[in-house]
Structure formats: C-alpha cells, structure tokens
Amino acid sequence: MNPYRAAIALAGGLLTLGLSVYGERHTGQAFVDELAAKATIAKDAAGGQDVGLRFENEFGWLTRHPQLSGGEALSPQTRSAIAAAVVAVPGIGGITWRNRDGSISDTEQASLHCQEDVERILETRTIRFSEASARIESGSERLLDEVADSLRPCVGSIIAITGHTDGNGNPAANVALSRARADAVRYALIGRGIPADGLRSIGVGSKEPIAGLDPLDAANRRIEFSVIVSAPVKPTPIDTPGSG
User: Fold this and answer.
1) Where are the alpha helices (DSSP H) in the chain?
2) Residues 142 and 54 in one domain
3) 3-state SS, residue 39
4) Do residue 38 and residue 90 come from a single domain?
5) Same structural domain for residues 175 and 125?
6) CATH code (residue 191)
7) Any residues with CB less than 8 A from the CB of 206 and at least 6 apart, and which?
8) Do the Cβ atoms of 151 and 189 come closer than 8 Å?
C-alpha cells in the first residue's frame, strides 16, 4: 500500500476509535448522572440524607451498581429501607453498602428477601399461558411487573426460573413446553430490566408435582423462582446498561 494512503488510513482508524471511546464515555456519564439523580431522591426520601452514593468502582469505572456509605447511626430498618429504595430505581443493577473501615455490610446486600416476596405474590396468582403454548396471556403482564419489582433487589445473584406442567400428555413434550414457558418468562423479565446474565430458565415437565396434589391436576402447571447463588454484587462497567 502507498505509505501516504497507509498513514491516512491509520489516522482515520485512530480518529474513529477516539470518537467511539469519547462517545461511550460521555453517553455512559449521562446515563449514570440520570441514575444518580433518581437514586439520590430515592435514598433521601427513605431517610438517607447523610448517606453517600457513589457510581464508580475502585478503578474509576462508571457502574450501575452504586456503593452506599455512612449512615452507621441509622437503625437497621432505615438502612434496609434506603438500600431497597435505591435498588428499586429502574436501571440500577444492585448495591453494596460500605462501612467506614471499607468492609461491606452483610445486612444491606441486595438480596433483601426477594425470593420470599415473589413466592408471596404467586401464592394466589399464576403466570398464565395460552393452552399448550409458551405465549404469556395478556392478563399476566401486570403480575410479571410485580415479579420483576420483587426480583430487582436480587440482582447480582443467579435466579432460576423453573417451568412445570401437569402429568397429562407426552413426558418429553411436557419438558420441552415447561422449558419454553420458563424461557418466555425469562425474556419478559429481561424486558422489564432484570439483567439476562443473572436469569436461568429450566424446564422439568411433570417430574415435580406439588406435594400432596394429583400429578394430573392442572394446578401443577406453574412457574417457580429460586435464588440459587447469593453473592455480593460486583460493580461492572456500563458498556451496555441493562443488557446481559
């Protein structure tokens, strides 16, 4: 290649790379600034006016997983309420709360009993699908909104979504249908802001009927949630906020 043209191509490539980095940085900064403004309002409303809020990790990377600090004089109930209020802000992936000595507080990790909350929601209501289909019925959309809100504090853990069927029909087909329904719920939750990399869908067909219930009973058709790994949230760069 002509050296002159090679130099132009190199300069053009460097310029493109520079603009890309600049754009990503500034887009990320705007995103974090918006999150920080909403999170500040949420924590203050929950009684955390003196609690610090940082959207950078120890390396200076912008992150969707903020660190809270201070508030040692607050009651455990108030600290938990502040943590829950911040986690509930759409776009935030989870929080850690650091004590004055730099250690992470165990009591305000983002788990906040979310599995129990989801189980209570689903005690009397069921995510419904069209017959013999993985299409979620429109009447379950609001229920999925509630499930997503309850799972949000668990971001940073691995959440299993398990599909079950009753014992009617072909066992292999039931396993496939239960997995497809679990996948449909997973995608619905991703669309509601739950990061994809923390969701696992499983289909077990009719192998695990509800205890004491006839395996052929339609009530065995259900979706269950469980936190299978409970781990502290690790701040990550916000290359693609909300995606997984």
Assistant:
1) 3-45, 76-87, 114-121, 141-151, 171-190
2) no
3) helix
4) yes
5) yes
6) 3.30.1330.60
7) 164, 165, 166, 167, 168, 171, 174, 215, 220
8) yes
Q: Which tokens go with 142?
A: 């609001």
Look at residues 67, 90, 110 and tell me which one is the last residue of a structural domain: 110
The residues near 92 (Cβ < 8 Å, ≥ 6 apart) are 35, 39, 64, 65, 66, 86
CA distance 156 to 160: 13
- What is the reported pTM? 0.53
Total of domains in the chain: 2
In a domain, 3, yes or no: no
Q: What is the pLDDT of residues 112-158, one digit of tens each?
A: 467 777 888 888 889 999 888 999 999 999 999 999 988 887 776 77
The DSSP symbol for 19 reads H
Question: What domain range includes position 62?
Answer: 24-110
Q: Could you list the mean pLDDT of each consecutive 10-residue stretch along the chain, which spans 244 residues?
A: 47 43 52 89 91 80 81 81 80 71 53 71 89 91 91 78 94 95 96 88 94 91 79 40 36
Which are the contacts of 220, defined by CB distance < 8 A and separation ≥ 6?
A: 164, 165, 166, 167, 206, 209, 210, 213
Whether residue 105 sits in one domain with residue 161: no
**Residue after which a domain boundary falls, among 110, 140, 156:** 110
